[in-house]
Structure formats: C-alpha cells, structure tokens
Amino acid sequence: MRSLSLPLALTARISPVVVLAAAGWALTSGPAAQPAADKDPAPKSGSASPSAEATEAASKQYSASPAPCGSVSAATLKSLVPGAKTAGKEIPSTDTKLRRTCSWNALKGYDYRWLDVSFEITESEAEATKSYQENVKEKSGGGDVPGVGDAGYSVVNLTTEDKQQTREGVVIIRSSNALVTVTYNGSDFESKKAPSTDVINKGAIKAAKEAVAALEGAR
To answer: Is 59 within 8 Å of 92 (Cβ atoms)?
Structure first.
C-alpha cells in the first residue's frame, strides 16, 4: 500500500497590554494617563482574533481515519469490481487510527478487477503536503484532479508480463492533514488486453471522490 502524509502547526499568542497608573492620580489625568489617541483600538466587528483563527484551522484537521471498507458505495463497487463482495477486506494496520486500507477484488468471467482505498492521517498539513508532493514526483506522468480535497493527482500506467496486459490507475488526494490513495487496476485474461486508460482513470477518480467525501463526513 502506498503511504502519504502532510504537516500544519498553528500557534496563536496574545500579548497582554498593561496600563500603569501612578498612585494618587486620576485615571483620566496626570502624566501617567495614556492619551485616548494612543490607546489600542477596539477590535473591529466581525474580525476574528488570532486564537479564534488558530482554533478554526485546527478544527479542519483530521484526528482519525474513517472505516475504509465503508468509504465507497455499493453501486460504485459493483460497477468497478463486478462480482466482488461489497463488504471488502480491511488490510491489517499497526495503527488503525492513523492508517487504514480496504481492498476489493474479483474475477468475473475472464475480467479481473482490483480496487484499494487507503487513508493516512498525518500530524499536520505541512507533513501531508510534503508526502503528497513526494508521491506525485515519484509517479510522474499523470495530471491534476481538480475539485477534490485540497490537491489531487491521477496517473495511469500499463504493464505487460508474459503477454498479459494490466493497466493500473493511482489517485492521490490531500485534504488538510489527511491523504487518500486509490489504486484501481484490471486485466482481461481471455484477450490478454487491459481495460482502456479512460476506464481505469475514471473509475479510480470516482472511488477517490467517494472516499474523500467519507473522510470529510467523519470529521
């Protein structure tokens, strides 16, 4: 399984303002009084304080991975992996809170299909961004997937072994501090040909969109 990751750490600090007044002097007069023009202006209506902005940004991060085997609809699974059990099979993980993967595969007639959906939660958006960029660089030759998460990338490759073709598509999506990776491949054991690039790419992207929706819905 492919792994991805990203980092984002936000810290807000508010420095208190201390106004000193000399004993015996009125607050509104005397050398120790601060002129009205020099006083800090009141916060503008509708503007968020640094601490509020940090809290809002932190709330957009993910703390745990959703159940991967429930991240893709039954209708989509029947379309992408005909004959597979929709329940899928979750792959054992050393830390299911941060990293989970589900797999579906089936042979119907002579057509074979395999689908993997993987979630990885990183410590920060920066860490996830770095991991995303490294994976995209490693799998060069693909293109962007717009409108899904904060960043998306898709690539399709064809391999041939003993005259049998297999075409595999990989979609990587970054959403805040989480990474979603979808792998979808297929082969025809009768013709020894592979499904078209369009079929594999569209199938992988469709599964990725549903997986990201499941991730966002579980936040």
So the answer is: no
pTM: 0.74
Cα 34 to Cα 18, 43, 44, distances in angstroms: 11, 19, 21
Q: What domains lie within the chain, and their CATH numbers?
A: 68-217 (2.60.120)
Residue 115, beta-bridge partner list: 104, 184
**Contact, 161 vs 194, CB < 8 A?**
no
Alpha carbons 153 and 140: distance in angstroms, whole number? 10
Q: Is the dihedral of CA 25, 26, 30, 35 positive or negative?
A: positive
**CB-side neighbour CA atoms (13 Å) of 113:** 22
Asked whether 70 and 101 are in contact (CB, 8 A), the reply is no
* Residue 86 backbone phi and psi in degrees, to 5: -65, -20
Which of 101, 104, 98 is closest to 73 using CA atoms?
Answer: 104
User: Which tens digit of pLDDT belongs to each residue from 4-62?
Assistant: 333 333 233 333 333 333 334 343 444 444 444 444 445 455 555 555 555 555 568 99
Residues in the chain, total: 219
Single out the residue of 206, 146, 135, 199 nearest to residue 172, CA to CA: 135
Q: What is the DSSP letter of 177?
A: T
Distance in angstroms (rounded) separating the CA atoms of residues 205 and 173: 10
